Amino acid sequence: MTRFIAACVQVNSRDVMSDNLARAATYARDAHAAGARLIAFPENVSMMSFGGDNVRAAAFPQEEHPGLGFFADLARELQSTLIVGSLHVKVAGEDRVANRCFVIGPDGNVITSYDKIHMFDVDLANGESYRESKIFRPGDTAKLAETEFGKIGVSVCYDVRFPHLFRDYAKAGAKILSIPAAFTRTTGQAHWHTLLKARAIENGCFVIAAAQCGDHPGGRQTFGHSLIIDPWGEVLADGRTDPGFVTAEIDLSRVDEIRRMVPSLQNGQTYKPC
Question: Which structural domain, as residue segments, surrounds residue 130?
Answer without folding.
Answer: 3-267
